[in-house]
Amino acid sequence: MKRLAIILIIAAIAEITALAQTPQADYRVIPLPDRIDGIKDNVFRLNGSQLIDYPKGNRDMERNALLLSRYIEEQTGLHLSTRPVIKGDAGNISLVLDATMDNDEGYRITVRSKSIEVCGKTPAGVFYGIQTLRKSLPVGCFEAVALPAAQVVGCPQFGYRGMHLDCVRHFFGVETVKRYIDIMALHGMNRLHWHLTDDQGWRIEIKKYPRLAEVGGWRKGTTLGHNSPVNDGIRYGGYYTQEEIRDIVRYAADRYITIIPEIDMPGHMVAALTAYPELGCTGGPYEVWGMWGVHDDILCMGKDHTLQFVQDVLDEVMTLFPSRYIHIGGDEAPRVRWEQCPLCQQRISDLGIHGTDNKSAEALLQGWFTTRIQDYLSKHGRSIIGWDELLGCDIAPSATIMSWRGAEPGAEGAKLGHDVIMSPVGPLYFDYYQTSSTWNEPTAFGGCNTLKKVYDFEPIPTELPEAARRHIIGVQANLWTEYITCEPQIQYQVLPRMAALAEVQWLRPADKDYDDFLARLPHLVDIYKRYGWTYRAKSLTEKDE
Ligand code: TNX
Questions:
Q1: The pTM is what?
Q2: Residue 96 backbone dihedrals phi, psi, to 5 degrees
């Protein structure tokens, strides 16, 4: 009897010590959930004996379950199998759809000693719950992890939470793009704005115009540094086949990320002009550009053939990208060629376009072109996004504006009734430096967008009238790659600034707190390290200048 009592006491002590040594989950992740309420219950001991249950027959939820299983294994070494169920039983992790929840992308995680439930109104909401759950787990190789009993609730402030990637100035392979998507998923983002065409290259296979990729996909060499007179003379390029694009679109969709392709027009078109010189005003010859900046040669507006070309390209783009939005650029289109081109001038006169005090006839010609494209896409159930220059071209408010030359154009656009995505150069150009002391940094575009500046950015200007506020539908950071040549450099520029952006996208302003964010950041960085991603370590400790 006495011996049994001693054995029991020893067993109890062993159990308590094991529990004390078991690493704990911490729900204060990035982006911070809206609420974390403790529940009076014991911890859930995750140890690999449990299953991940999902509703039988639901493919999206099945994929969610498989992704959660993979994340848990990658972060903790614990392997959990998945199981389709009609109704789950106790002891497991259950992924559940709950139609009574408010927001399509909101989530609710309930942890009790005997169960974990991850709920969302849609599979996307469940996916964000999964992200919060996996980010709360410690990183390492464990026998078990203890999850405190709690209810954790989160819901994003903005429906459009974007990152942009320029794959033109430098070209990045399928695997790199997929990893970029993985990084976005970890940060709760849902729109990838993929810049695919520009003066320095055409990166998307178009079957009707094969020379676009074959000829336009390659430049003879690249300038060294910031547009120095020295060119490296090394042929550079590449493009994505339609098969590869479909694969990437699917990979992103599996992670609830919509890819918005950008076909920049009528400017930033020298690569296309090189392939098909008749699309330009002078007829060329042109050469895929090996310098950075704004080029005077753009699409000719006087030829019907140009308009047909654009529609044909967009037809193929629409078959590849299910996104409602197609980005048609519209930025940095100098009008010097149009001013001198008899065909463009003829078009202006045929259309009866007359310049006004603040809008030239050529600006209005760009407006006419954009409106045609807008009408064409809307006939196919799509909408356009364009850079804020479009506000100077008299276009319909159904065009969504991406505000890059500051937040002011976006505010103006919202007042005019346009939906707006805020991605101002300051502080959301991630191709800019992250510190003012740049001597020890990889070459960047310029500027200085520190982690704190990103964190402090508020997408809805305080002075914006109430009616215009609802037009600010989202926030995005841009990564132009003139000076970014390889994947580690991509990651270095975006990490950890994407973490700060995630809180801008998810949290309401009153819930933001930079010091608290900094205290939560090292754990997220542990996850970056687990995946071998490059990041700017100094941003974690350095005082903002
Ligand atoms: C401006 S943002 C551009 C890009 C450059 C970028 C460099 C925009 C619409 N145009 O073509 O790559 O600056 O930061």
A1: 0.96
A2: -135, 140
